[in-house]
Design a protein that fits this description.
This protein has helices at 9-36, 44-55, 58-72, 77-90, 94-119, 124-134, 150-167, 176-192, 195-210, 227-234, 238-256. It is mainly alpha-helical. It starts with 8 loop residues before the first helix and ends with a helix.
Length: 257
């Protein structure tokens, strides 16, 4: 033991960040994930969707989706209702239940990976550990293996994953503009899913603009936090303008409906 070169100072910090903290996160994830795969719980909404999906046909599900969208005035129900029907039906099976739990937790992990990339700060591992540790406080009605959380976490995961992919697309690269435009348009149905995804889209757009993502040459990561610096980062930021267009289309569709 005396002959081993134990890490100290900066090396110790790197050692803890590279090995100990990830192992701690994995341990906490396993502890938190395992109970969710051993039971089948449903809240009131889940019981309704499960009953319709189990006993009804495709026509019944479409009819209820339309009726729910009209009664609540939510155009996003045309997207979220099929997700609820499908997940409630599939979560009778244990493998599907495990997949649902993985999707729910993957949403948190991907969220922090995205924030890490945007803010250029190594926060994903520690933030995941903190979030997962406090997840039980949310309450059983809004946690897996209920199907209801998947109606939100699945669109969240797809929205964040798509935005994370778009971060690495250079507007001026070959086919870069086409990829960015198609990617931004693909965000539209995800944003329309519910009000929460719409709020997230606005927050992510402002965050990326503030951090200089997609800014013109020489203005990325602008150091000034004053308003002139903020405006300078938006000059020539085509990604920002496309985000505004998609959010406008989503909000206009929602209000018009």
């Amino acid at each position: 033991l005396a002959a081993i070169s134990w890490p100290t100072g900066v090396k110790l910090k790197r050692y803890l960040a590279a090995i100990v903290l990830p192992l701690l996160v994995v341990s906490v994830l396993c502890i938190q994930l395992w109970p969710f795969t051993l039971a089948f719980r449903q809240n009131a909404d889940d019981n309704l969707y499960h009953s319709i999906a189990l006993n009804g046909d495709l026509g019944s599900m479409i009819e209820y989706s339309i009726a729910e969208a009209e009664n609540q005035g939510r155009i996003g129900n045309f997207i979220s209702a099929p997700i609820k029907f499908t997940t409630n039906y599939l979560l009778d099976h244990h493998l599907a239940m495990i997949l649902g739990v993985i999707i729910f937790f993957a949403m948190y992990i991907m969220s922090f990976r995205y924030l890490e990339a945007v803010c250029n700060a190594r926060i994903s591992v520690l933030a995941t550990l903190v979030a997962v540790a406090f997840i039980p406080l949310v309450g059983n009605g809004h946690l897996p293996p209920n199907a209801f959380p998947l109606a939100f976490s699945l669109p969240f995961l797809l929205l964040i994953s798509l935005r994370h992919w778009l971060l690495g697309i250079d507007w001026n690269a070959d086919n870069g503009r086409l990829k960015v435009i198609l990617g931004k348009l693909a965000l539209l149905p995800l944003i329309l899913n519910n009000e929460y995804t719409m709020v997230l889209a606005v927050i992510f757009t402002l965050l990326e603009a503030w951090c200089g993502v997609g800014a013109a040459e020489g203005k990325t990561r602008y150091s000034s936090t004053r308003w002139p610096g903020y405006i300078a980062r938006l000059a020539g930021n085509q990604k920002f303008y496309l985000d505004l267009l998609v959010i406008f289309l989503a909000a206009a569709s929602y209000i018009a409906y």
